[in-house]
Design a protein that fits this description.
Length: 183
């Protein structure tokens, strides 16, 4: 396979804090990239869990917005990651929306399950104040989560590209991503 084809990702991992704009950017990418790209996010996984699952041993949300990830959630997330990786192995192209609240370990776990796939790593950033304002408008998050995660989820993470949705629109960010990976 020619180098330029091998280097084109079949997976784009968009990492950013809550309310950073990952979903808006991913939706723009779905409309502009060639072919069908599935948009799968950690929020979809969380929404799929029963209410009884949420506890300090699995996944909990503190009053100040801190997310506590326990062994129970990591097990479920491992299953989900393996399923996403299997989809990629069978030909799917995937936009993964994640927020590495557990630090570099989150990226390392994706790297392990996607080791055979060409992956593009994208940091989706915005200033904590912008994320907090978006969080307030959304009304579906614990207050403080967005500001806490805005910078923290990027610590120790290696990216191929970073975009800032505080200084550019979702369409502009998606355009930068498309130009970078698909020229």
């Amino acid at each position: 396979m020619p180098h330029h084809e091998r280097s084109r990702p079949r997976v784009l991992v968009l990492n950013g804090g809550s309310s950073s704009g990952k979903t808006s950017v991913a939706r723009e990418l779905q409309e502009t990239l060639d072919g069908v790209w599935l948009r799968l996010g950690v929020d979809t996984l969380i929404d799929a869990l029963p209410a009884s699952f949420f506890s300090e041993d699995s996944l909990s949300f503190a009053a100040d917005g801190e997310v506590v990830v326990g062994a129970g959630f990591q097990q479920v997330e491992d299953w989900w990651m393996a399923g996403v990786a299997r989809m990629v192995q069978t030909g799917a192209r995937v936009l993964i929306e994640d927020n590495f609240v557990s630090g570099p370990g989150g990226q390392q776990r994706w790297q392990a399950v996607l080791a055979e796939a060409p992956v593009g790593w994208v940091g989706v950033r915005c200033a904590p104040s912008i994320a907090a304002a978006r969080e307030q408008v959304r009304g579906d998050r614990v207050t403080g989560m967005a500001a806490k995660q805005a910078d923290a989820v990027h610590e120790g993470i290696a990216y191929d590209l970073e975009v800032d949705t505080g200084t550019q629109s979702s369409a502009e960010a998606a355009g930068r991503i498309q130009a970078h990976f698909f020229g």
